Amino acid sequence: MMGMKSKITQVRVRYKETDKMGVVYYSNYFVWFEIGRTEYFRRLGMPYSQFEKNDLFLPVIEAFCEFKVPARYDDLINIHTRVASFQGIRITFNYEVVRDVDGEVLALGHTQHAFVNSKGRPAVLKKQNPFLWRRLVETLEYVAD
After folding, report:
1. Is 0.70 surpassed by the pTM of this model?
2. Is 32 a domain residue?
3. Rounded CA gap, 5 and 21, in Å?
4. CATH code at position 54
5. Is 49 exposed, middle or buried (CB count within 10 Å of its CB: 0-12, 13-18, 19+)?
6. With the C-alpha atoms ordered 40, 41, 42, 48, is the resulting torsion angle positive or negative?
7. Gap between the Cα atoms of 78 and 45, Å rounded
8. The dihedral of CA 50, 52, 58, 60: what is its sign?
9. Which domain, by its residues, includes 119?
């Protein structure tokens, strides 16, 4: 499988993210995926704020989350983010949400994104943003399954 090294981002579960049972409401996992993805690009030297300045957008075209164990209020969690696949106009991220204190996997998921310009037309990343394309290609590695 082709992929990249995982980047880890930590967040603490806030009270407002939980329901009456103290369990994290499901939609927050997708927010955490976005946090992981945003930090991933920042570490590549290309924060999301630079995307728009370069007429480049990454709409989500697919999102999936498998919930294993509930996260709860005040848990410190680690969002492991890695690129699962990368083509010139598409990128897929895999996520693993892990409780910090015991390493328990709370959720697994992925999102797929298309690279588009401000008109919503597909953008070939190599042409639209050679810097980001090069950074992604440089960090690709083959990962044994």
Report:
1. yes
2. yes
3. 35
4. 3.10.129.10
5. exposed
6. negative
7. 21
8. positive
9. 2-140
Count other Cβ atoms within 10 Å, centred on residue 136: 19
Q: Is 101 helix (H, G, I), strand (E, B) or coil?
A: coil
How many Å apart are CA 82 and CA 90, to the nearest integer?
A: 14
Give the N- to C-terminal CA distance of the chain in Å, as an integer.
6
Is 109 a domain residue? Answer: yes
pLDDT in tens, 70-120: 999 999 999 999 999 988 899 999 999 999 999 999 999 999 999 999 999
As a whole number of angstroms, the distance between CA 115 and CA 126 comes to 11
Question: Among 19, 74, 102, 145, which one carries the catalytic annotation?
Answer: 19
37 in Cβ contact with 81 (< 8 Å) = yes
Split into its structural domains, the chain has a count of 1
Residue 89 phi/psi, 5° resolution? Answer: -120, 5
The answer as to whether 145 is a domain residue is no
Reported as a single tens digit per residue, the pLDDT across 20-35 is: 999 999 999 999 999 9
Residue 56 domain flag:
yes
For this structure, is 102 an active site residue?
no
Q: How far apart are CA 51 and CA 41, in angstroms?
A: 10
